[in-house]
Amino acid sequence: MTARYESLLSAAPLPEDLAAIPPMPAFAEAATGFVEAFSTHLFRMPAARRYPELTALAFWMRKSNLARVRTEMRARAADSLLVPRGTVLHIAPSNVDTMFVYSWLISLLTGNRNIVRLSSRPSAQADELVGAVATLLADPAHADIARRTLLVRYAPDDLVTERLSAVCDVRVVWGGDSVVRQIRRLALPPTAIEVAFPNKYSLALVHARRWQEADEERKAAWVEAFYNDAYWFDQMACSSPRQVLWIGTPDQAGDAAADFWPRLERVLASHQARFADVDYVNKRVAQDGMAIETAVRIPASRSNDLARVWLDVPALHDERHCGAGLFFESALPDLEALRPLLARRVQTISYAGLTKDELSAFVAAGPITGIDRIVPFGRALEFSTVWDGFDLLRVFTREVTVA
Amino acid sequence: MTTQDPFLDWPVYGLEHAVKSERLAAELTRLTWKHAEGCAPYARILRARGYRRDQRFALEQVPFIPVRLFKEHELISVPPDQVYKVLTSSGTTSQSVSRIALDRDTSAAQTRALVLILQSFIGKTRRPMLIIDHPGVIGNRASFSARGAGIVGLSSFGRDHVYALKDEDMAPDVDAIRAFVERHHGKPVLLFGFTFMVWKYFYQALKDRPDVPAFGEAILIHSGGWKKLAEEAVDNTRFKEALRARFNIGAIHDFYGMVEQVGSIFMECEHGALHAPAFADVLVRDARDWSALPAGKTGLIQVLSVLPSSYPGHSLLTEDLGEWTGQDDCPCGRLGRTFRVFGRVAQAELRGCSDTHAGMVAESGAVGA
Predict the structure, then answer these.
(1) Looking at domain A201-376, which of 3.40.309.10, 1.10.10.10, 3.30.465.10, 3.30.70.60 is its CATH number?
(2) Residue B366 confidence (pLDDT)
(3) What is the DSSP letter of B308?
(4) Residues of A in contact with B47 (CB under 8 A)
(5) What residues 353-372 of chain A have any CB closer than 8 A to a CB of chain B?
(6) Terminus of chain A with fewer CB atoms < 10 Å: N or C?
(7) How far apart are CA A331 and CA A354, in angstroms?
(8) Is A179 within 8 Å of B358 when comparing Cβ atoms?
């Protein structure tokens, strides 16, 4: 019995037939032309206006940004001779609906054939994106891309994943720890490689005194930026800040927090859509559970769109986190106090009131476990071709040496 | 043994809302601080949320905890040697079960409260009782499942108990049922079972037989929720009509209750409304800000009961959606709040970074009531 999946594109090739179609050169015109057309298409879609993450994606795909991505990649490749690996299987995450597009497009631009497996979780954004891709790839102008692309959806099924894995040269797994574990069990061709992006946990870092000293305009911009970082994907993205660490004395931290959260609450009151009831219950369970397990205070908030847990002793507690607007917070006397807190699963630090130089110096000053990227408030969700410490350019290409 | 709790002398459906709220609030305030004293984890929650010791609460201000906490933590307010029996919830979607520790006082109060409530519906005489379940469900007496505890609790209201289903395959024990009907022909009888069991293993298994049992004056009491029946498009109205038409069961009462608050159950009256007895009440809260909602607005149900004195379960936020519909105004004449339950809140998809395979469990897992 053949393992079956739902193909989301009409006239898509069979996985077993992909190998017969040659890869393309990096940044081939067919690929850049397709990505630009996709961008234009997204900008015109009324749905894109409803979902800021679709707009962000459309911006990323614009011609000018692609040129920037290309220049960066060239600079990183330097004199290396890089060729596409062949066929890339992307197992897309369910928590960030646009992620499969970034993963797929970087791979496409570097010349690979692609199989993208979408989560079976219903998602309006994913449906909009799939609809757009299907329309574009039905156009003969993009036939070169269409014959190298499979976009599939299936409920978790090892047989299907094995079938797709058997024809790939790279398997990229975006998903939780359990997904990564499950998929790693499934065989790959001996020459294939795998890169996994498992559960990650991200933090916001704010210099308490400098927060207090900032002017109104600055604070308003920071709060808005923090809101976008934390709430866009319901705080479910790996890079969404889930914990706020205030650098300063406990008093300074308390004062800054007392100024920060009411400002965020005003943004929430005007911007934030209601979460599901179960999200609010989950947050309450997390708060009360933490009160039982560790020394915390649970400050009241205006609405449950914001749920806070103040930790007397800073620690990650990531296993307790359920997203949807739940924030653990604590005070750190100085930046150095962050170092012992870190674990490998800490991904993004988004910061306010600190400088790039201070943070670079911190990273350079001693051994560091975890942290894949450090970005200012407002850029936590920005996609980068270096992700979780992996240079995707190198993931999707292999280097040929000629002596 | 202490003297009987004073609230058991309150008229079970005879307290006007204003009087009842005041009495309940005072008793629940007392319980809140009693549990804080006896149960350290509970005290930590109150402290984290900024409650001050010996603060007094109006009914709507009584601190509540999510009922799910009983699945994650052992919450007990009495020393271990006073634990007389432990109730467990039937595991549903997750493997974790609630563990509710009862001391003798709490257990006795539960039994007494249940008697007072049920007497209002079935009178004081013990009726012959047909249990719509299989005898094996009682099993181990030291640790009851919710279903087992419900059956044991209700059994004392009947006599001449007969189990309607067979242990092996849950098929109706037709001979036993027929014998029961014939033996008590013309006399009032009591039937009890879990909603889904009654429908699936009793009604559906018997309805097409030529010799369906025809009861005389029968009361059916059932509970357990409508989730599984909703999948078959069976609601309370259809349930009652079907059982009435096929088996001549005239009086059918659902009740809302949970293992975390055994005893102070919310019975459905002759007019289809769930009623809060004197020692319990319901509030409906908006999940977005926990505000108590007015009548007719849907929200999360909070259940309050003065019975739990061995564990901090006197004020619980459930994961059930409902609305309250009236106060002291039901045509059945019972005073207190009336309400309706719409079912469990939709479980969020397993999100966060836990996509695909974890998702499969949610998609295919069997879900209990």
Answers:
(1) 3.40.309.10
(2) 24
(3) -
(4) 291
(5) none
(6) C
(7) 15
(8) yes
